[in-house]
Design brief:
Elements lengths: L2 H15 L2 E2 L2 E2 L6 H20 L5 H14 L2 H8 L11 E5 L9 H9 L3 E5 L7 H12 L7 E3 L9 E5 L2 H10 L4 E5 L3 E5 L6 H12 L9 E7 L5 H7 L9 H16 L4 E3 L4 E4 L9 E7 L2 H10 L4 E5 L27 H5 L3
Parallel strand pairs: 3-4, 3-6, 4-5, 6-7, 8-9, 8-13, 9-12, 11-12
Antiparallel strand pairs: 1-2, 10-11
Helix pairs in contact: 1-3, 1-6, 2-6, 8-9
Pfam families: LuxC
GO molecular function, one term: acyl-CoA dehydrogenase activity
Organism: Gelidibacter salicanalis
Length: 352
Amino acid sequence: MDLQKRITAFVKLGEFIGQFSAEGYQNYDNDSANDHFFDGFKHQIKLAHEHNGWFTKENITFTLQGWSKLLTDTVINQWVEQYNFKEISPKKVAIIMAGNIPLVGFHDIMSVLISGHHVIVKQSSNDKHLLPYLAKYLEHVEPEFKGRITFTEEKLTHFDAVIATGSTNTSRYFEHYFKGKASIIRKNRNSVAILTGEENDEELKALSEDIFRYYGLGCRNVSKLFVPKDYNFDAFFNGLYEWHPIINQHKYANNYDYNKAVYLMSEFDLLENGFLMIKEDASYGSPIATLFYEYYNDLDTLKTVLKNNQENIQCVVSKGITENSVPFGQTQHPQLWDYADNVDTIAFLTKI
């Protein structure tokens, strides 16, 4: 199965999922694959939300639209052109997925298949409806994928390498269990934003997308702010205001109420606006509906602190303050070459 066939299949998948947006589902493709899969995928989106209340139609379609923009011939070729796939001998690669946001493991599956390997997928119970259906679509438009994609709920056996994503605690289990196997083991990471007090309204409004998209459950969601001494949070709260309807989502509201009660009983100082609490805290991972913040004295010292804690950080959002910083509003729009934990998945797959 040559590389161009693999690319073409993913391009067709991108066209397929591009039909599903928050504004509505529009069947604009008249080929047999679309006729066969369109209505079924609408049902899978419905099932995904019924199974997991965090997976709203808005968040699922946001994910789908993001992937549809990446699954183009131009973008995929730009991604893969730096690698040599000619010497690859197909291996079986196991993927253990997280389930915090919709299709969170799709990039790993795509990386394995684009590289010419076979994939064995162990999904999270929180996200088990969308990926198998999209895999069936891939097999339909490119029959040579049949037999190369396996989903299992059983104990993983007979594989050559593994990509496992979990918490810092589960990563210790993964490292022990998969000792002796080629592996990428991912741990907890969070994203942070650096504010200087000079941000305009549009930048702070964009930052709210980094904070609230997927209810803050993704590793690319900003969970902590670094602000200068005597920072005035009024402009920050104004920038977030358009997200105030998020409190109407009952799972989010329950977390907000619970965490607020815990903080008040513990007599912690916090600021809140009715749908988000901010609390001074040195930790990087904040609970749902909460954002931590920490003051800094000067940017050079802060950059050193962030460098020393880079194993805990997925993205840094700023106006170019740090190397490879992400612009406001862009954390949930990674490119194919923006690898999780800055570990090049394709490079790993070409060497196993």
